[in-house]
Amino acid sequence: MANTVLKLITAENTDECLQLKPREDQQRFVAANANSLEKAKKEPTSRPFGIYADDIMVGFALFDVEPYPEDGYFWICRFMIDERYQGKGYGKAGLAAVLQHQKNQTDCTKIRISHVPDNTAANRLYKSFGFAETGEVIGGETVLDLIVAE
Ligand SMILES: CC(C)(COP(=O)(O)OP(=O)(O)OC[C@H]1O[C@@H](n2cnc3c(N)ncnc32)[C@H](O)[C@@H]1OP(=O)(O)O)[C@@H](O)C(=O)NCCC(=O)NCCS
Q: Which active-site residues does the annotation give?
């Protein structure tokens, strides 16, 4: 498998990012990347990243790079792999890179993520990294936490 790395979204790779989309039947699971890039401008603690397989952007993630002010934890706000590149391990490799990036920040004691309740692929992926359901539902989504340090 290609080497998977994160690169910040800048003016140079915005167009490539906007071209990525999930399958049509998955579009209710994640906002369009155009929407996520707009959200990124308003969220002071989160940054948008392309998930790269060597030189090709195969996915996108928007996540906290410092504690989210409202609860002091690190959220992964958006996460997707383009339909052309799914099922090849990039979801797993991309999520591992996101988690490593967050765990490297000071004060990262807990990482939080949420998904549409019937998004079973996302649920399996997140649980395989140690995320556990908290029982909370925020904005209609199932919330999962990964405890980084006690
Ligand atoms: C969820 C998603 C990121 C997975 O990406 P991917 O590149 O296909 O994932 P991988 O190939 O790395 O597979 C990783 C794991 O995801 C889960 N998974 C992926 N596709 C799945 C499917 N069709 N059914 C069940 N589980 C699935 C499995 O746990 C899999 O691990 P396994 O193969 O060891 O069982 C991708 O399907 C996606 O972008 N979906 C649309 C957007 C979305 O739902 N984002 C999450 C919003 S919270």
A: 126
> 82 lies in which domain range?
4-106
- Residue 2 is predicted with a pLDDT of 84
Q: Does 23 have pLDDT greater than 70? A: yes
Q: What is the pLDDT of residue 150?
A: 59
Half-sphere exposure of 22 (CA within 13 A, CB side): 21
Q: Which atom of ligand 1 is nearest to the CA of 22?
A: 41
Q: What is the pLDDT of residues 46-74, one digit of tens each?
A: 999 999 999 999 999 999 999 999 999 99
* Cβ-contact 9, 50 below 8 angstroms: yes
Averaged pLDDT for residues 77-102: 98
* Inside any domain, residue 72: yes
Q: What is the CATH classification number for the domain harbouring 54?
A: 3.40.630.30
Domain assignment present for 9 = yes
Residue 80 CA, closest ligand 1 atom number: 39
Residue 42 lies in a domain: yes
Q: Considering the domain boundaries, does residue 121 fall inside one?
A: no
Please count the structural domains in the chain: 1
